[in-house]
Amino acid sequence: MAAGALDGIKVLDLARLLPGPFCSLLLADYGADVLKVEDTGMGDYVRWAPPHYPGVEHSAGGALFLSLNRNKRSIRIDLKSDGGKQVLLDLVKDADVLLESFRPGVLDRLGVGYDVLKEINPGLVYCAISGYGQDGPQREAAGHDMNYLAQAGLLGLTGDADSAPVQSAGQIADIGGGALMAAFGILAALRARDASGKGQFVDVSMFDGGLSWLAMPAAKTLLEGASPKRGGVELAGSLICYRPYACSDGHVALGALEEKFWRAFCEGVERPDLVEKQFEPVGSAVHQEVVEIFKSRTRDEWEAFAAIHDCCLTPVLGLDEALESDLVRARKMVAPLTQPGAEQPVRLLGAPVKFSETPADTDRLPGPGLGEHTDEVLAELGYDADRIAALKEAGSVAGTPDGATGSFLG
User: Fold this and answer.
1) Which of residues 293, 318, 343 is at a domain's end?
2) What GO terms are given for molecular function (predicted)?
3) CB 56 within 8 A of CB 338
């Protein structure tokens, strides 16, 4: 396979859980050399989240872990020790990117913050993902995806008018506001380095990123001053032409925003009188008529209807149905991973961006065991066997522990 678009880029990933690892997964799938830098304790917590693939070394066998950490290597370092700090400093010398997701100031207090690292490597792109940013009144506050969305106003707008706020099944702030913004920021900073030769600090706040997802409703609020209410956002369920509907055996999604699509729907159900009612609000008499229309057919019947009438109507699938769909198969959005020891096929989501000349490789490296590559990476730095052994004896670094185990989300 051709070299990836990011071939030759070296990334030190000190992050854990979802936002940072998803960011570095994207970089790794497109060719970057990603080294997962973990502590000498349990490492990345997500390693221990069930379920696990039978036969795989336990620290590398979790389905959630593998979904975020294929194509990476792992080293374990105690950054509170002098020896561990020196290892990180040596790694930084020829790294292109350092990614971390600690609370602001943690690495500074350990003596390995950006101001120290940029003196060692002026070209380093240092990306810090945090909940509320490196400055501001909540820089020290703990939080998770739901908290950032709540404060950004997005959670409060999600759901119907008569319901409580509805959590998304996907982590919008973690991935959309954190991981994707970080990946963009890193690539933009690398591009700037091409011209200047200098790296820079990239500050990614999941709160900021989550708020940016409200670009359109925020624009109206900033102009008019009034905030929309839950159930009153045009593209979040307030219009009868753009919302999910129950059918006789499931649900479908109608996205007929343009007049031509709404007309196709109305004419298809032999209700041309509804064409002029496209933007009637939810709860109106017209809405109730549309509700009853959808209840009159099964999901499969509506799917067949949509194949004839071009009206942006799709079935609401379960995740299992989506993963086995012809669309996913055609787009190669489920991909195999060659994972040592696995007693059954390891299948993960594929790469979402397709390149014509430098395609992603989602099966370049298996998911790493905890500290699996400690010796290998230290040897690449020029450390001899005696020095590596001394660092291990001091607890400054560690390899894969025998019978490694832990617990998270289970």
Assistant:
1) 318
2) catalytic activity
3) no
pLDDT tens per residue, range 174-199: 999 999 999 999 999 999 999 999 99
Residue-wise pLDDT tens digits, 238-296 = 999 999 999 999 999 999 999 999 999 999 999 999 999 999 999 999 999 999 999 99
Statement to judge: residues 363 and 296 lie in one domain? no
Lookup result for tokens 């939080």: 143
Is 144 designated active site?
A: yes
Here the CATH number for the domain that contains residue 57 is 3.40.50.10540
Contact, 30 vs 4, CB < 8 A? Answer: yes
One domain for residues 264 and 356: no
- Calpha distance 346→335 (Å, rounded): 8
Residues 6+ apart with CB under 8 A from 150: 156, 165
Question: What are the backbone dihedrals phi and psi of residue 74, each rounded to the nearest 5 degrees, phi first?
Answer: -135, 135
Domain that includes residue 243, residue range: 239-318
Could you tell me if 161 and 82 lie in one domain?
yes
Residue that has been written with the tokens 């290597």 in this structure: 73
Give me the number of domains the chain comprises. Answer: 2
Using CA of residue 154, residue 155, residue 160, residue 162, what is the dihedral sign?
A: negative
The gap from C-alpha 380 to its chain's centroid, in whole angstroms, comes to 30
Active-site residue among 29, 174, 361, 363?
A: 174
Judgement on whether residues 376 and 347 belong to the same structural domain of the protein: yes
* CA 318 distance to own-chain centroid: 20
Residue from 58, 90, 144, 251 carrying the catalytic annotation: 144
Please identify, among 318, 342, 377, the residue that sits at the C-terminal boundary of a domain: 318
